[in-house]
Structures are given as C-alpha cells and as structure tokens.
Design goal:
The chain has helices at 12-24, 54-66, 78-86, 102-111, 126-135, 164-173, 192-202, 227-242, and strands at residues 2-5, 29-31, 42-43, 46-47, 71-74, 91-94, 116-119, 142-146, 178-180, 206-209. The chain has an 8-stranded parallel beta sheet with strand order 9-8-7-6-5-2-1-10. With 254 residues, it is of the alpha/beta class. It binds phosphoenolpyruvate (PEP) and manganese (II) ion (MN). Phosphoenolpyruvate binds at residues 7, 33, 74, 95-97, 119, 147, 184.
Length: 254
C-alpha cells in the first residue's frame, strides 16, 4: 500500500490536485484529513484548524469517482463514522489518539464494511494495539499503521520515534498487514525518504503526507513533502515491489 495525500483537506481544488498527483505516481490510496484533532485550541494566538469536516468527506467521495482512486479519512466519533460510511469511502482510519476509543472501535467493528487503518497510539504497546484491532474485527479487516511513539528524546525537529521493532514484530509474528508512516513518525520532511526506504524493507507499505506547496499546509507542514520528493518515494515503492516481496518467516521454525 502506498497511502498519500495532505494532512488536511483544505479545499476541493487542493484535494483534487494532490489526488491526481498521487494517482499519477501510482499511489494506491489517497488520504486527507476531514476532522483534525488538535493538541491545543489556540496555536500561536490563533484558533487551531479543525479541518473542513463533513464537506471534506464529500470531496473524498467525489475524488473516488472522478480520479478513480480509493480514499481514506480519519474518523474520531461515531457521528463522523456514520458520515464516512454513508459516503462510501473505501477505507476508514482510526487515528493514534483514538486507538483506544472503544465505543468507536466497537461501532466500526459492527457497522463498517470496509478495511480500517488503525494507527498505533503514541504511548501504547504493541499488545494494546493488536487488542484494539481485535475490536475492529481482526486481521481480515485491519491494516495496522506504525506512526511513531513517544520517547524520552524530544529533539525539536523530530517529534516521534518510528518503532521499527514494533512493526517488525507485527510482520513476523502476527497475521496483520502493517504499514509505516514516516511523516508523523518523524515530524521532519527531510527524514521521510530515508525512513520510507527503511520501512519498505520490512513492512507492507507507507503512509506519507504530501502537498504541492507543503508550507501552505495548515497542519503538519514541517513533515509534509512536496511532489518531487513524493515521486522519488513512489519510485522506490514500485521498484521494490518488482523485486521479491517480503515473506513472513515460518513462525514454527523460528
Ligand atoms: C493523520 O494521519 O491524519 C493523523 C492525524 O495521524 P496520527 O493519528 O498518527 O497522529
Ligand atoms: Mn498530519
């Protein structure tokens, strides 16, 4: 899987332009945040950006039809899930901060008929993560996404630590597909290419944030890559796919 798109959908025009690029480069899923979570209500003296809401979900539904690429967005509540299910988005995403939103997980487990990308909580163990995936219906419908965890090292440019050991464990010892998100997993766009290369060695794909003008992103600008960088990542992804795909080791022989 190569999931790519802006952190947040900011307009119809912006979303379509990025979606067309993702499709052209061979991205397999277009992502775009409709409902943004925010750590604080006020950022640098201004109200935080909460996303376009339902309108962005309808834009994604139109992108599925017109650009012919499956779309995903994060839902944080049952109400948002109802909107996204109704709009027939091909995938749903549960974000890191909602990994243990059990009423949401149980609702999706019962009512969503599409695959769900479940991001790992910032401070959650692999065991807690797979436990949450079970609420969603288990390995047949969940794709786990490692997006970086908290660590003692709060280096300013790199907010999180992409947990390769956690992802490797999932890959080798469980039936879950696992993708990695080097955008949120680092917080720094300069690290996205090298981390993507490493991630593709041992996972089932990537999620990256991309924008034609990353600095115009209202959220996560510092980690958002431009089109040129995305082309490079897409090339690495497709070149790698032509080689032997990563196989699980036979667990009985380890
Ligand atoms: C996202 O992918 O849009 C997002 C908010 O990421 P996370 O839940 O990993 O912070
Ligand atoms: Mn983001």
């Amino acid at each position: 899987m190569l999931v790519a798109g802006p952190c947040a959908i900011q307009s119809r025009k912006q979303a379509f332009r990025i979606a067309r690029k993702v499709k052209e480069c061979g991205g397999t899923i277009f992502r775009g945040g409709a409902y943004k979570g925010q750590n604080r209500p006020i950022v640098n003296g201004l109200p935080a950006y909460w996303g376009m809401g339902d309108e962005a979900v309808y834009i994604l539904a139109d992108i599925q039809q017109q650009v012919q690429i499956p779309c995903v967005t994060e839902v944080q509540s049952i109400r948002q899930a109802v909107v996204a299910i109704d709009a027939k988005l091909a995938y749903l995403q549960v974000g890191a901060r909602h990994m243990q939103n059990f009423p949401l997980l149980r609702y999706l487990g019962e009512h969503a008929n599409v695959p769900i990308i479940l991001k790992r909580g910032l401070g959650n163990t692999v065991d807690e993560w797979t436990g949450c995936a079970e609420h969603l219906g288990g390995a047949s419908r969940v794709i786990l996404c490692e997006r970086g965890i908290s660590s003692f090292d709060r280096t300013q440019q790199t907010r999180w630590r992409l947990d390769f050991v956690g992802a490797a464990y999932i890959k080798e010892y469980t039936d879950y597909p696992v993708i990695m998100d080097p955008s949120h997993g680092s917080g720094d766009r300069r690290l996205v290419l090298p981390l993507s290369k490493a991630a593709l060695q041992m996972s089932d794909g990537l999620m990256v944030e991309v924008h034609y003008a990353p600095e115009r992103s209202k959220t996560d600008a510092a980690q958002t890559i431009n089109f040129k960088a995305f082309e490079e990542i897409a090339k690495v992804y497709h070149d790698g796919k032509r080689k032997t795909p990563h196989k699980k080791r036979n667990r009985d022989t380890v």
